[in-house]
Write a structure and sequence with these properties.
The complex is a heterodimer.
Chain A lengths: L1 H47 L5 H5 L5 H9 L9 H31 L4 H14 L3 H13 L8 H26 L2 H9 L4 H12 L1 H16 L3 H6 L17 H10 L6 H27 L4
Helix pairs in contact in A: 1-13, 4-7, 4-10, 4-12, 5-7, 6-7, 7-10, 8-9, 10-13, 12-13
Chain B lengths: L1 H26 L7 E6 L4 H15 L2 E6 L2 H9 L5 E4 L5 H6 L4 E15 L8 E2 L1 H8 L9 H6 L11 E5 L4 H13 L1 H6 L12 E3 L1 H11 L3 E6 H6 L6 E3 L5 E2 L3 H7 L24 E9 L9 H15 L1 H4 L12 H11 L3 E2 L2 E2 L1
Parallel strand pairs in B: 1-2, 1-3, 5-9, 6-7, 6-8
Antiparallel strand pairs in B: 3-11, 4-8, 4-11, 9-10, 12-13
Helix pairs in contact in B: 12-14
Classes of the chains: A mainly alpha, B alpha/beta.
Membrane topology (chain A): Multi-pass membrane protein
Main location (chain A): membrane
Protein name (chain A): Phosphate transport system permease protein PstA
């Protein structure tokens, strides 16, 4: 009896030791994988915080001469990234306007007809769409919009390129969310005589709101930092431009522009930091929405 | 349901607005121009950004310039999606014939490509064409080589390997540099030649002028060629280079201007490298804005054509040229301005002069 007890105790100790060892290893590895993010944040804040002041958000990007003069006097480079912020908001907003309705409708279709050749084909195509490199979408938008429609670089062309990038994440999140909603909910509505389309719009969509809007926000934050497709479509602009048929700036484009001008290089950090913060906030927003609007069945 | 309807209305109205804007451009020739768009070379971009911002402020016409590289500038003009393009290498006769219309070259300023290096102690160095060939072809591999010391008596040359840095992307800067090297070295001309992208015998690659400048700054013993603005802004030492007249010339506004002292053809398509001018810096070049002679293309209005002409006249005018030297470029010589003005007067709209 006694010896048996001691054996099981020893076994138990061994197991506890194993458990602790394993969790320590896991925690270390998790920390290591989070390390790049932390060091990126640290670098950006360290190099960019000086630039972040009110002017940085309300003034347009400075030109070479202004930057040179400020550097010679050891002052902070004047100006800001207002043209980029406004451009990013317009381009991303327009892209959302195109992608959200399309993505929702496609997602609803996929969740309602989960089997069938057509649905499978659409699902496959959506998955493949996710893998298309962003620069290819830029070339496509160049051929579709820049050359024939606006006959020049434009914010609209940038939006089209980015909206295609957004589609897969919206479609997939809509489909997955709607599939998780118990069918009894739908059956209840239908049995009360509610038409099918009203059932979808009034019962299913509101119920799945948290999942769907998370997908949308993640889609937006995915495209907000894209540079490559915008270089071929939106081109960039030194002024705030509200006309969507004209070239427009965006924060990632400005970062690229700053990199190309030796006098403006210091501005890269501030602009990157603002971009990162915007995407950070969007992600936090997605988390908050999930928490708040989560429907319990 | 109402929300969905609203969304649909929004989408339809947006597509209507954009299509109206487009067809309006095509039908109404008298439509006022709100903006002009140009794209191309990154080498003069600091200069363009500065003067176009001034122009936008003083004339109220938004001028947008995108630095997408010389090749991109030519392609954009070919696709007829810009009002003007920009390139550091002028279009050859063959390329001109491939364009869908008559293309005009307007020189906008002069720039220098410099040999920038990173040696501890930052000694001032002089290079002869032979030394340039030796270093960039990998024949001279150490900074304390007797050949370098012979040209630079008294300079403190360390025992340090030479690392050549070159451009990995197609670039006008590479074209200007290799054009010069081909002129001074027959071996270079045979083995490497002149072009926007080349097979380099030695060295490491970096992307763009900023990439090369950054690699030079970060690598002890490195040497590379970059647009002068990039060296000056980051205070990287640059070499004096011996020109045809035998003088060692430092790149400066004066020596680059001097390089353009020779004759300029009527279409301004000329390389200035290996100049015969006594005080001229040998790796200098014009950079050009390119545009169509016939301005009525792709639904552009007459006003847009006139605004384009006015903008280009302003670029070669005194107000803009005076700003060149402030951002380390050199102003156009007077005869280039005269010729450019003549070329601009050739611009037509539907066959009639502007």
């Amino acid at each position: 009896m006694n010896s048996l007890n001691s054996i099981s105790k020893q076994k138990l100790k061994w197991r506890i030791f194993n458990d602790k060892l394993f969790s320590i290893v896991m925690m270390t590895l998790a920390f290591v994988s989070a390390l790049p993010l932390l060091s990126i944040l640290f670098q950006l804040v360290k190099k960019g915080y000086k630039q972040i002041r009110l002017n940085f958000f309300i003034e347009v990007a400075p030109d070479t001469m202004q930057a040179m003069m400020a550097k010679a006097n050891h002052e902070i480079i004047p100006g800001g990234i207002a043209n980029g912020i406004v451009g990013t908001l317009i381009i991303v907003g327009l892209a959302s306007l195109i992608a959200i309705p399309l993505g929702l409708i496609c997602g609803i279709y996929l969740s309602e007809t989960s089997k069938g050749k057509m649905a499978n084909a659409v699902r496959l195509v959506v998955d493949m769409l996710q893998g298309i490199p962003s620069i290819v979408l830029g070339v496509i938008a160049y051929i579709w919009i820049v050359k024939p429609v606006t006959s020049g670089f434009s914010a609209l062309a940038g939006s089209v390129a980015l909206s295609i990038m957004m589609l897969p994440s919206i479609i997939r999140s809509t489909e997955e969310t709607l599939k998780m909603i118990p069918s009894t909910l739908k059956e209840a509505a239908l049995s009360l005589g509610v038409p099918y389309h009203r059932t979808i719009f009034k019962v299913l969509l509101p119920t799945g709101m948290s999942g769907i809007s998370t997908g949308i926000i993640l889609g937006i934050s995915r495209i907000a930092g894209e540079t490559a497709p915008l270089m071929l479509t939106a081109l960039g602009s030194s002024a705030i431009n509200l006309d969507i048929t004209q070239p427009s700036s965006a924060i990632p484009l400005l970062v690229w522009e700053f990199y190309n001008d030796p006098n403006l290089i210091d501005l890269i950090w501030g602009a990157s930091l603002v971009l990162l913060l915007i995407i950070f906030l969007l992600n936090l927003g997605a988390k908050a929405i999930v928490k708040k609007w989560k429907v319990q069945y | 349901m109402k929300k969905i309807q609203l969304l649909l209305v929004a989408i339809i109205s947006i597509s209507l607005i954009t299509s109206c804007g487009n067809s309006g451009k095509k039908q109404n020739n008298e439509k006022k121009t709100k903006a002009l768009t140009g794209a191309g070379a990154t080498f003069p971009q600091p200069f363009y950004n500065t003067i176009f911002k001034t122009y936008t402020k003083s004339k109220g016409l938004l001028v947008t310039y995108g630095g997408i590289g010389s090749g991109g500038g030519i392609r954009s003009l070919k696709d007829k999606i810009v009002d003007f393009g920009a390139t550091d290498a002028f279009l050859s006769d063959k390329k001109l014939s491939e364009m869908p219309g008559n293309v005009l070259h307007i020189p906008s300023c002069l720039g220098a490509v410099v040999a920038a290096y990173n040696i501890p102690g930052k000694p001032e160095l002089k290079f002869t064409p032979e030394l340039m060939e030796g270093i960039f072809m990998g024949k001279i591999t150490n900074w304390n080589d007797a050949k370098i010391a012979q040209v630079n008596p008294g300079a403190n040359l360390p025992d340090l390997a030479i690392t050549v840095v070159y451009r990995s992307d197609g670039s006008g800067t590479t074209f200007i540099f290799s054009d010069y090297m081909s002129k001074v070295s027959s071996e270079w001309k045979e083995k490497i030649g002149a072009g926007k992208a080349l097979q380099w015998p030695v060295g490491i690659a970096a992307k763009g002028n900023p990439g090369v400048a950054g690699t030079i700054s970060a690598t002890e013993g490195a040497i590379g060629y970059i647009g002068s603005e990039y060296a000056f802004a980051q205070s990287i030492p640059v070499a004096s280079i011996q020109n045809q007249a035998g003088n060692f010339i430092k790149p400066s506004v004066e020596s680059v201007s001097a390089a353009a002292a020779g004759d300029i053809p009527d279409d301004t398509r000329v390389t200035l490298t290996n100049t015969t001018a006594e005080q001229g810096y040998p790796i200098s070049s014009f950079t050009w804005l390119i545009l169509y002679k016939e301005q009525a293309y792709n639904g552009r209005s007459k006003d847009q054509a006139m605004q384009t002409k006015q903008l280009l006249k302003w670029v070669i005018g005194q107000e803009a040229q005076i700003q060149t030297s402030k951002v380390h470029y050199a102003p156009l010589p007077e005869k280039a301005v005269l010729k450019a003005n003549k070329i601009l007067d050739l611009m037509t709209y539907n066959g009639r002069g502007l």
